[in-house]
Amino acid sequence: MMDVLEKESLLDKEIGKLLRKTGRSGANSGRGYVKFSEVLTDKMSMVFLIRNGIPYHVFELIRESGPLTENEWAAILDVSSKTLTRYKTENRDFKTLLAEKIMEMAEVTQLGLEVFGNLSRFSQWLHTPSFALGNLMPLELLKDSYGKELVTAELSHIHYGIFV
Fold first, then answer.
1. In what residue span(s) does the Antitoxin Xre/MbcA/ParS-like toxin-binding domain sit (predicted)?
2. Fewer CB near the terminus (10 Å): N or C of the chain?
3. What long-range pairs does 3-7 form, CB within 8 A, spacing at least 24?
4. Distance in angstroms (rounded) separating the CA atoms of residues 159 and 39
């Protein structure tokens, strides 16, 4: 079983391959490799990745580096667990709409880790009803882009100590 750093390194490597395949090197700061966390802040690289699709094995690395279970991912992507299993078995690519959701969730995860410092605390926050979010669990809001914006805004408020 891989540790967190090994998974991050593998994810960086796989994202680099995908970007090279699109003809875009991405945000690599001249190092010769791409860090996934930097790609998440490079909107043009995100566009290229989303438009070219996300292979299941890359999705799996993203999923494993975040706080969500496979069933939670299925709900957010609005697909069944059986469909996710089929994607895995056939090593299919997630096309534009699902790829965009995957990358959005990766952005939320990165921000959550910045705010809470680790996956455990971030996961706990995602699964706890929030007064600022209408007493809904943040996780419940991540199914659409407007909800995602509310969640990221609340994460930013927490990060900067702005409590409503």
1. 114-161
2. N
3. 4/65, 7/61, 7/64, 7/65
4. 21
SS3 label, residue 136: strand
Q: How many CB atoms lie within 10 A of CB 48?
A: 18
Average pLDDT value for residue range 15-28: 77
The amino acid at residue 52 is: N
Tokens matching residue 42: 């490079």
Q: Strand, helix or coil at 161?
A: coil
Mean pLDDT of 147-161: 96
User: CA-to-CA distance for 128 and 122, rounded, in angstroms?
Assistant: 10
- d(CA 161, CA 96) in angstroms, rounded, equals 35
Q: Which residue has the tokens 């709409």?
A: 97
**pLDDT > 70: what percent of the chain?**
92
